[in-house]
Please model this.
Amino acid sequence: MTRPVAIITGASRGIGKAIALELAALGYDLVISHFDFDSTGQPDDAAAKAAAAEISRAGAACRELRADVSKAADRAALVDLARQAFGRCDLLVNNAGIAPQRRVDLLEATEESFDRVLAVNLKGPYFLTQLVARWMVEQRRQDPRGPLRIVNVGSISAFTSSPARGEYCISKAGVGMMTALFADRLAECTIGVFEVRPGIIATDMTAAVREKYDRLIAEGITPLKRWGTPQDVAAAVGAIATGKLDFSTGQVINVDGGFQIRRL
Ligand code: NAD
Model:
């Protein structure tokens, strides 16, 4: 039997890598991307190569590519790699994302940071999804039944105001509408589109604010008083990838320890 293939952006570490390992365990072959730099600002492919090796050891074929999701040429190269290596894409996971380089108050934040965060977190996934969706529509014509799915990794920042990183919140609010739009448009081709919405997850992205979040979690900001793990998020993507939620296209799956519950 042909193995299904997933493209995952930003899978050199953190949530993306955990998703890649989960999908490898579920029998997917993988194309993973990253855009890492070392502490001196030089391109650094070491973590991505290590992730690819770990995925291969888990039994999946894996190709990795350094590709900036905000750049059209890099998005095209990623999709071309999947076409050349595997000739199919059954699942796209838009995971790559960045926080603003510095947390800056809404009244001081720069247009430059706004443009960069929106380009990576929203414009990039939006147009990568467009590219992959066109290919999935072709695949659907050839195979009327094979499962085809898209997962966007959003954030509780879609509905939670953090005035020191407004551009991030806006980008993730946009991902919410992006999920609804593509779910609506692609339903006629039975391509499911979902958002997985993490809360506070222990990764490099939150390392700089670990102490602040340790305190907030201890004080009960989330009903479940612990950090989320990349594996918590990966398990939700796994449930989608195995077809358990196929009639729920357009849904947001919260992976946040209950953060979204209004409490009194
Ligand atoms: P991370 O910083 O640990 O990893 C980010 C990954 O994205 C890396 O593989 C990196 O190479 C890649 N990346 C960065 N810029 C890129 C670009 N321009 N093009 C392509 N790839 C790029 O982050 P993480 O915490 O694992 O976050 C993964 C996703 O989850 C992001 O979309 C993030 O916004 C979201 N999220 C994270 C948290 C959290 O608490 N960590 C919470 C909610 C949502």
The CA atoms of residues 82 and 152 lie 19 Å apart. The longest helix spans residues 111-142.
